[in-house]
Design goal:
The protein has a single domain, classed as Aspartate Aminotransferase, domain 1. 37% of the residues lie in helices and 25% in strands. The chain has 4 helices and 6 strands. Strands 1-2-3-4-6-5 form a 6-stranded antiparallel sheet.
């Protein structure tokens, strides 16, 4: 996995955009103005931060040693996934999908309707 592949997958989600980052070293992906994925490029090893519902967040942390509470957001809802560990691409795509769906779920109806 590399940043380009992950970025392309995030941007393939309906309505997803790469928005202005917090700094020059972070890729930020949003839908409806809300973040669903962040890739801090300066972090070694490479990682991605994804929003999760609290139950899914805990499940992933218990199942994978390469999944940790998010370092920058509410630890209850964000996971940091170390990408150089034993993470499979198919799992990461599922987690990106989950994060995207979590953000879309809380958008106003008018914003959700634009994504259809």
């Amino acid at each position: 996995m590399n940043v380009e592949t992950i970025s392309q997958y995030c941007l393939s989600k309906k309505g997803a955009v790469e928005d202005f980052p917090f700094d020059e070293e972070t890729l930020v992906f949003k839908v409806g103005g809300k973040m669903f994925a962040l890739i801090p490029l300066e972090k070694i090893p490479l990682q991605i931060n994804l929003k999760c519902d609290p139950e899914k967040a805990m499940e992933l942390r218990e199942q994978y040693e390469d999944v940790q509470p998010g370092w920058h957001m509410s630890k209850k809802y964000w996971n940091t996934i170390i990408l150089e560990g034993n993470i499979r691409w198919s799992d990461l795509k599922d987690w990106i999908d989950h994060s995207y769906d979590e953000v879309v779920r809380v958008l106003k109806k008018s914003e959700r309707d634009k994504l259809k």
